[in-house]
Amino acid sequence: MPLYNRLKEYRARLGVNQQEMGRLAGVSRQTIQIERGDYSPSVTLALKLAKLCQVSVEDIFSYEEDVRNEAEK
C-alpha cells in the first residue's frame, strides 16, 4: 500500500522516543513502528498522532497512487 509517513520526523520534533510516543497515543511502542511503513494506522490512531504532533493528518501521512497499476487497468 503506497501510504507514506513522516511520523519519525514529527516524533523527533517532540523529542520523544517510540515508547513515549506510544504512551502518549495510548498504544504500544511496537505500534509506533508504523513509522517504518510496514503497515497503515487506523484512522483513529492517525488522528491521535496528528493531534499529538499539532499538525494535520496530511502533514504526517500521504497516499500516492501507483501510476503503473492504474495504467494497466
Word description of this protein:
With 73 residues, the chain is mainly alpha-helical. Helix content is 56%, strand content 8%. The chain has 6 helices and 2 strands. It has helices at 7-14, 18-25, 29-32, 43-53, 57-60, 67-72, and strands at 3-5, 61-63. It has a two-stranded antiparallel ribbon. The longest helix is centred in the middle third of the chain and has 11 residues, at 43-53. The model has no long low-confidence stretch (mean pLDDT 90).
Number of strands: 2
Structural class: mainly alpha
The percent of residues in helical segments reads 55-70%
Q: What amount of the residues lies in strands? A: 5-15%
The strand order across the widest sheet is: 1-2
**Overall spatial form:** globular
Rg of Cα set: 13 Å
Individual helix count: 6
User: What does the main sheet amount to?
Assistant: 2 strands, antiparallel
SSE topology string: EHHHHHEH
Chain-averaged pLDDT: 90
Through-space gap between termini: 17 Å
Poorly predicted regions are: none
Itemize the secondary structure elements and their pairings.
Elements: E1 3-5, H1 7-14, H2 18-25, H3 29-32, H4 43-53, H5 57-60, E2 61-63, H6 67-72
Antiparallel strand pairs: 1-2
